[in-house]
Design a protein that fits this description.
Kelch-typ_b-propeller; 683 residues; elongated; alpha+beta; eight-stranded mixed β-sheet; Rossmann fold
Length: 683
């Protein structure tokens, strides 16, 4: 979507966003996300987009179509209705509605830059499938009209010039007494606020029965929002609405103050959950192998659909949820904040720009980081080198290490687990290369016992593949592997995750540590919901499982403790007060009877998850924000790893970030230290 001239961002660049958007919509239709057989005639070029982009454009199309079709349904008793699409670009809305037989008494007006409208008119005339549907009545050349059919008018006007727009629409036959739907899909945000506000107010004042659908970005100040803003600034198409209207309440007030009597707003997570039927959610989720849940949910939380109306009888409320449970969430009450400081590390932390990796403390002052996707050799790829952080005299020294024959064995896996079993041995379980392949099994990592005395650049890690016979339970990713004790023996508890075949797993396996044999141990109690991207911590010989992403890709807020009993283990739910906000892609640690949940992604609050501290004796749960004000870059605390240093009560966040929709990849450039001693002594 887009409009404008000097009163907006650079018009040519803004038009470029429209062309890019049309290509994405075309790719989304080609993969079966949306049904649109007309778009390819209007776009011409083809370019296949990534699954994350397909999902983003799917939910955009779904929200707009939902509102437009609801308007047509609710006004079908009227003899005439109108749709005015502002900054329509090369959109195929008219042709789809006409083909579906929904335009019995509706005229569609589309407005865009004169050169865009002329290009589109030429394409329609040249393409039989389009011109046959619309029926050319030869009305072009009259004023701003570039193409005219009985129920379709295409106008070339600059939206930011309101008087010109008003005159052109009047000449084209727009009737202010007829129920009219205004549609603005990522358009108004490129205009100066005074001009977009004037357009919103003009629509309310001039039309006696009117509805408005707005689809745009929001939440500019959190880390994802900062990356999003920067992307559009670099394209010379700044998102201008965000300064005055950064969130849902501000947009709602904007419309109510400009003359609209009813207004409701949903972010796209809420729309997907509340206004998309379950079978349709499942159909979409199964279309392509997909493993970028964090970025999908973050993209959806930064876009909204707004509907406003005036003079409509009965009132028009297409965003009323069919679900009984409330979809959105209010603000989270916080007990304070924890300052984040860039880690005082000597050169070499560049190898830690990655996500989906694992970091483990292999001796009191040595952290080994493996795998993930990030920067290596100046390019983005699955990382094959190992990274060592070594603390000496209060300062972290960093080094990368890559064994010569490591490429053959270390397959660049993501979302695996690493369990340190002794001072010289760690076990890698599962992980994936691509979302369609996860048969990676287990590996030993061997390193020198005296590594804490070495320079990080001197450290050597040896990889040993394990026999496939021991591996069926290891063919998963986004799972957890946690040490437990049963009858004095050590086991690794492998739980949850997902596989190439199953989008979410709820099974578990006990791996006897000395011989690495999978052992059956009875487990009773209420079985937790299947989940992946949860956290798991050893505690009192058992395991604490918290959060995760469950079936239907919904975050979970449950906490479970798997505790040792006389003849096996038993699950028990851990009650917290208040209940924790559902989240996933966080990390966790236990310290002095408290469970610390670090970062992650949640859907139910405009704030970003920080640090949650749960007292395991009382169940008291306190939330703290992570204050990244002193960092020179946005801190994304998801897809990260973290290491807790109990003596200093210091938490080290390593890596994190991901592909921010079509806005580029953001990877935290260096480790971040959180000093928790203040909040841990308070509670």
């Amino acid at each position: 979507g887009r409009p404008g001239t000097s009163a907006m961002s650079d018009p040519r660049q803004v038009q470029g966003t429209g062309g890019s958007s049309a290509l994405s919509k075309c790719s989304t239709a080609a993969r079966g996300y949306t049904r649109d057989r007309f778009l390819r005639f209007l776009v011409g070029r083809r370019r296949r987009r990534a699954p994350l982009v397909h999902r983003g454009y799917y939910i955009r199309a779904r929200a707009v179509d939902h509102c437009v079709q609801d308007f047509l349904l609710k006004t079908q008793s009227h003899p005439r209705t109108q749709i005015l699409s502002l900054g329509a670009g090369f959109d195929s809305l008219y042709f789809r509605l006409k083909d579906m037989g929904l335009l019995h008494h509706t005229v569609v007006y589309e407005v865009d830059f004169p050169n865009v409208a002329c290009q589109k008119a030429t394409l329609i005339k040249r393409t039989e499938e389009l011109s046959a549907l619309v029926g050319d009545t030869g009305g072009e050349g009259l004023g701003a009209v570039t193409f005219s059919g009985e129920d379709y008018k295409l106008l070339g006007v600059d939206l930011s010039e309101l008087s010109e727009l008003e005159r052109a629409l009047e000449e084209a036959g727009l009737d202010s007494e007829v129920p009219t739907l205004f549609l603005a899909e990522v358009v108004l945000t490129y205009m100066e606020n005074s001009r977009s506000d004037a357009l919103i107010q003009w629509a309310a004042e001039q039309f006696s029965r009117a509805c408005f659908v707005l689809y745009e970005q929001m939440l500019p100040q959190d880390p994802f929002g900062r990356v999003m803003q920067q992307h559009f600034r670099q394209l010379s198409s700044a998102l201008r609405s965000l300064s005055l209207y950064p969130d849902r309440p501000a947009q709602q007030q904007r419309f109510l103050q400009k003359g609209w009597t009813e207004c409701s707003v949903m972010d796209m997570n809420e729309f997907f959950t509340c206004c998309t039927p379950e079978d349709e959610q499942q159909r979409m989720q199964a279309l392509e192998p997909f493993d970028e849940y964090e970025e999908w949910h973050l993209k959806c939380s930064h876009y909204f659909v707004l509907t406003a109306s005036k003079g409509m009888e009965p009132s028009w409320t297409p965003l009323s949820s069919s679900m009984t449970a409330p979809c959105g969430g209010g603000p989270i009450r916080t007990a304070g904040s924890v300052p984040a400081a860039a880690c005082a590390a000597q050169l070499g932390t560049l190898g830690l720009r990655r996500y989906g990796h694992r970091s483990v403390l292999i001796s009191p002052n040595v952290i080994l980081t493996t795998g993930g996707f990030g920067e290596e050799g100046g390019q983005h790829c699955r990382v094959r080198s190992f990274h060592v952080l070594l603390k000496h005299a209060g300062c972290w020294k960093a080094g990368c290490w890559k064994e010569e024959d490591c490429d053959r064995r270390w397959d660049g896996r993501l979302y695996h687990t690493v369990s340190c079993l002794s001072s010289s041995l760690a076990l890698v379980v599962g992980g994936r290369t691509s979302p369609a392949r996860a048969g990676l099994g287990m590996l030993w990592l061997k390193f020198p016992e005296t590594c804490s005395a070495l320079d990080p650049g001197d450290m050597r890690v040896e990889l040993v593949s394990l026999q496939p016979a021991a591996e069926p339970a290891a063919l998963r990713w986004r799972h957890s592997t946690t040490e437990v004790m049963f009858k004095g023996e050590r086991y690794l508890f492998v739980y949850g995750g997902r596989s190439a075949e199953e989008p979410v797993l709820g099974d578990w396996h006990f791996l006897h540590i000395p011989g690495l044999s999978f052992t059956v141990i009875p487990v009773g109690g209420p079985v937790p919901e299947s989940r992946h991207s949860h956290s798991a911590c050893s505690w009192n010989g058992g395991v604490l499982i918290a959060g995760g992403l469950g079936a239907a890709e919904q975050p979970l807020g449950s906490v479970f403790f798997l505790r040792e009993l006389e003849r096996g283990f038993g699950w028990q739910a851990v009650e917290t007060h208040p209940a924790i906000t559902p989240r996933y892609s966080h990390t966790a640690h236990v310290h002095k009877g408290r469970l610390l949940l670090v970062g992650g992604v949640w859907l139910h609050s405009p704030a970003v998850p920080g640090l949650t501290v749960i007292d395991l004796t009382t169940g008291l749960c306190l939330d703290y924000t992570i204050d990244g004000e002193h960092l020179e870059w946005p801190l994304m605390v998801h897809n990260h790893s973290s290491v807790f240093l109990p003596d200093e009560e210091e938490l080290l966040l390593i890596g994190g970030g991901g592909n921010c929709f079509s806005f580029g990849t953001h990877l935290n450039p260096e480790p971040v230290s959180l000093n928790l001693s203040n909040i841990l002594t308070k509670q």
